[in-house]
Amino acid sequence: MPATKYLPLFPLSIVVFPEEKLNLHIFEPRYKQLVLDCVETGKNFGIPTHIQNGVGLFGTEVEILNIEKKYDNGEMDIRTKGLKIFKIQQFDKMAPGRLYAGGEVEMVENDYEEDIITKIKIKELLEQLYETLGLGNLYLELPEDFKSYDIAHQLGLNTEQEYALLQLLSEKERQEVILLHLQQLLPMLLETEKLKERVKLNGHFKNLTPPNF
């Protein structure tokens, strides 16, 4: 049976991916306690996705890079980084003797082998997407050797779709899902852009060539 470990848990209504940098403002007493405990012990904590009115089974272990700012009332701004994906085996609304949640989690294996052809197709569609949205700078900032997780928050996915992506533990599977999403999204987006142009043109003097008949 895979090894498990006990993690302090900080459920949030977002999906955190491995390697993602996440800045958080900590203001609730229970999570102030969680951060201080982690800093003191050098331990990490987990962010499971709170979804459909409950704590999802999947989440990402994160490490605290640093406490950026401490406020007089004890609130904090912290910088964190996503590490590995876990699956909750047992969830405690309150970890033993603490104010915050905790749980026994199993770290899941992740296959990062990619399909280069799919990646090229994704890259081409991403360029079209960003150009259409007027976000060409995002494409320029894309690492040459990007992984699915690097672009996951820039695809227009909703939380449920991002959470489904988090549960796919093969890069090739993630690539297929992302490619399909872009193939479906782009035609709709381009049609919306055409519609905007038609709306803008309405009321302008039109220089039209009549048909010959």
Automatic annotation (TrEMBL):
<dbReference type="InterPro" id="IPR046336">
    <property type="entry name" value="Lon_prtase_N_sf"/>
</dbReference>
<dbReference type="InterPro" id="IPR003111">
    <property type="entry name" value="Lon_prtase_N"/>
</dbReference>
<dbReference type="InterPro" id="IPR015947">
    <property type="entry name" value="PUA-like_sf"/>
</dbReference>
<protein>
    <submittedName>
        <fullName>Peptidase</fullName>
    </submittedName>
</protein>
<feature type="domain" description="Lon N-terminal">
    <location>
        <begin position="6"/>
        <end position="184"/>
    </location>
</feature>
<dbReference type="Pfam" id="PF02190">
    <property type="entry name" value="LON_substr_bdg"/>
</dbReference>
